[in-house]
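re: ur question from earlier - yeah i can do the single chain one, its not a big deal. heres the input i used so u can compare w yours
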Amino acid sequence: MSLGSLQQMAMLAVARLGDEAFAKVVQEEVEAATGRELAVSTVYVTLVRLEDQGLVTSETTPPDPLRGGRGKRFFRLTPAGWSELRHTREVMARLWDGVEPA
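and the output i got, formated as tokens:
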């Protein structure tokens, strides 16, 4: 499997955020790290697709009646997700080996 850049960024943000990884904070983490603006819906769809691939899993909390909203869907990397991130990092390191930016 080959991860795209947004998939990698989303998965790394999930890893960094731990138990607090839901779409809005994943979006904020990626934006803060990259300076790239993303719609929260783009991040959410990416996370759901990663879940469909078995790279992340999710759990939805019950709605909070005091906040009037829906439950939050929290994401977490699966062992396969960690493995894929490690593999991607290794591939990129091999590709960068011996390359000096101009």
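The chain is about 55% helix and 10% strand. not sure if urs matches, ping me
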